[in-house]
Amino acid sequence: MKDNNCAYCMQGELVAKFGYPVCAMDTGYLYIFKEQSKPGRVILAYKDHVSEMIDISDEERNAFFADVAKVARAIHKIYKPDKVNYGAYGDTGCHLHMHIVPKYNGGDEWGGTFQMNPDKVYLTDDEYEAMAEQIRAAL
């Protein structure tokens, strides 16, 4: 099922406002979060338009979390964070997705909850593509 108003379902221009495409995964689509105050921050969006983890089977949920872990391993390998935070939000954008957010001791928001859209650091398309290539290679 797709929702024509959902950035993750429609991909293209809607998701391009905040995400840069990396690749399709077994259970969804991986994007670099364009705001990069935490280098390596990405989003894994579930392949179907569902709102909650309880809307998918146990097997689908386990596969989604396996993809989350696979992405986290790649982020650890490339960016060497001190900790990765995970966030599943969506009060207004009701499509199951997981923010995978590297955190660095002494860095932006260390010791606290990461902001959704801090609006501090943006890169060029060439820089996003270089990140995407690194992530693809590490997956």
**Chain-averaged pLDDT:** 94
Q: Taking strands numbered 1, 2, ... along the chain, how are they ordered across the largest sheet?
A: 1-2-3-5-4
Secondary-structure element order, N to C: HHEEEHEEH
Indicate the structural class: alpha+beta
Question: What is the CATH superfamily?
Answer: HIT-like
GO molecular function, one term: catalytic activity
Pfam family, one: HIT
Motif (Histidine triad motif): 95-99
Protein name: HIT domain-containing protein
Brief account:
GO terms for molecular function: catalytic activity. This protein is an alpha+beta fold and 139 residues long.
Key features?
139 residues; alpha+beta; HIT family, subunit A; five-stranded antiparallel β-sheet; globular
Explain what the structure shows.
- The protein is an alpha+beta fold and 139 residues long.
- It has a single domain, classed as 2-Layer Sandwich (HIT family, subunit A), CATH 3.30.428.10.
- 32% of the residues lie in helices and 21% in strands.
- It contains 4 helices and 5 strands.
- It has helices at 7-10, 12-16, 58-79, 125-138, and strands spanning 19-24, 28-33, 42-46, 83-87, 97-103.
- A 5-stranded antiparallel sheet has the order 1-2-3-5-4, with helices on one face.
- The radius of gyration is 14 Å and the shape is globular.
- The model has no long low-confidence stretch (mean pLDDT 94).
- InterPro entries: HIT-like, HIT-like_sf.
- Residues 39-110 form the HIT domain.
- It comes from Hungatella hathewayi WAL-18680.
- It holds the Pfam family HIT.
- GO terms for molecular function: catalytic activity.
